[in-house]
Design brief:
The chain is α+β, with helices and mostly antiparallel strands. The protein folds into two domains: about 100 residues, 2-Layer Sandwich (Double Stranded RNA Binding Domain), CATH 3.30.160; about 100 residues, SHC Adaptor Protein. Helices cover about 30% and strands about 35% of the residues. It has five helices and nine strands. It is globular.
Length: about 210
């Protein structure tokens, strides 16, 4: 699919004019065509956050590879510009590694299917929750990729995630990377003992 046809621009409870739509389309295409001939799709969503505009950019390159960026500003153009700069920076930083990753035969990439849940945070929602029976808000399907630690770091940062769960291509064990409050990245590599969903949930509460 060409770059001209797969960029979606919309507003969430806010109106998006033709001028902003064209501005976003032109500038996002300029960002992407420097590095990629094509990609699956890209969604740009504008919304209001109190007194500011929020712009969220979500680019689906292929398979489970996404590049995301978001920003706030007192006007929609400014929010997009900042978010777009984040996208540029991430693509530029990981372009060579991303190219190598994309060039691999996808049939050789092993992955595990999993269910992803969003649960209520009892501290924010001020509710009493059974630690073994959390309140589930939503559920979706996810895949756990078999990649190296450096590839997992790349995927986590490109996707603007705080953590990533993956299967280590070298050890064949399930690993977790997470962003620490000191700015570094934590890496959890369990020993031979198998983890189940219960003790994984207990650990993730402390990330």
């Amino acid at each position: 699919m060409s770059l001209n046809n797969n960029i979606s621009i919309s507003g969430k409870q806010t109106k998006i004019g033709n001028s902003l739509t064209e501005y976003v389309r032109i500038n996002l295409k300029a960002t992407l065509k420097k590095y990629f001939r094509n990609f699956i799709n890209s969604d740009v969503i504008f919304s209001r956050d109190r007194f500011n505009f929020k712009c969220e950019i979500n680019i689906h390159l292929e398979g489970s590879i996404f590049v995301k960026g978001s920003a706030l500003s007192n006007d929609a153009y400014g929010a997009f510009n900042v978010a777009n700069e984040k996208i540029k920076k991430r693509i530029r930083r990981y372009h060579r590694k991303l190219t190598d990753h994309r060039s691999n035969d996808s049939t050789k990439l092993n992955y595990l299917e999993a269910n992803q849940y969003i649960i209520k945070n009892p501290e924010i929602n001020k509710i009493n929750v059974d630690k073994d029976d959390p309140v589930i808000i939503s559920e979706s399907e996810e895949i756990i990729k078999t990649v190296s630690v450096s590839e997992a770091i790349m995927l986590m940062n490109l996707n603007d995630q705080n953590a990533i769960f993956f299967k280590n291509v070298q050890s064949k064990r399930l690993n977790i990377l997470f962003k620490r409050s000191d700015g570094n990245i934590g890496w959890l590599d369990p020993k031979k003992k198998k983890w189940n969903s219960t003790n994984l949930f207990h650990y993730l509460q402390f990330i």
